[in-house]
Amino acid sequence: MTNLCEDFMLNRLVIAVLVLGVSAVMPGPKATAQQGGGVSLEEQLRAQYKVAKFGTDASGLAITDPGTVLTVQKGGLLGVAPTNPAMCASKFQDGELKAPNGFCVAMVKQNSRLLQVGEKVYPFKIDVSLDKDKISFKIVECDSCNGVQEPSMYKTQVDFQFAKGSLKNASVPQIEDTISQVLQLDSGGDGPGGGNAQGSDNQGGQNQGAQNQPAEQAPPKTIELGETRDQVVEALGQPEKIVNLGNKQIYVYKDIKVTFLGGKVSDVQ
Hints:
Elements: H1 2-25, H2 41-48, E1 53-57, E2 60-65, E3 70-72, E4 78-80, E5 89-93, E6 96-98, H3 102-107, E7 112-114, E8 120-129, E9 134-141, E10 155-161, H4 172-180, E11 183-185, H5 204-212, H6 229-236, E12 241-245, E13 248-252, E14 257-261, E15 264-268
Parallel strand pairs: 5-10
Antiparallel strand pairs: 1-2, 3-8, 3-11, 4-7, 5-6, 8-9, 9-10, 12-13, 13-14, 14-15
């Protein structure tokens, strides 16, 4: 009888250990901005901010696939040469851009420079940390946009720090508004000040003649709530980007964003 009881208790112990072991190795739910199989916040940001890809050409390291062009809005971003593995991150929090760590700045002093307001850059990596309420952008100079003759491709990192517990509940437009205070979607133009200066001398006479002619003002384009996607495209043309979130879609133009729910306009920003 004693051996039978011991065998029974041993079997129960083995079963309990197996159950605990399986529970320990089972993966938990992936942290996303939208639980239940929705599109993660990082995926939504990557749809809005296309990241650039690197490769090599005859001159060495080069951008093989350009990303979304962003314009620097605040001074204080410290760029380092692409050959330097270190990057000194600046932190944007509560509307203030904080300078990188002084020790890091000293380490890259010989091979770094401050990016200027108005310079244009590409994002090349976007990281979202919901548990730390932080979004990190790694960016690199858009040499061709800035009219640089000899590619320099200085790179840096910006950490956007949100209030504790707020990032998982923040909407994408709210996050984009925060990001745009430091890195704004470029509205067009090839140089830091916008506009393409090439060919201005050759076309000066033509431009002057065109300026002397009175321009006929076109009627303003209007968008109304409840309009379909086709009606919006007919009024504004094709969008620069489309963020597809299932039943919700966002058409991104140079100066506005049109949100559709169920195929009809629900919001315009």
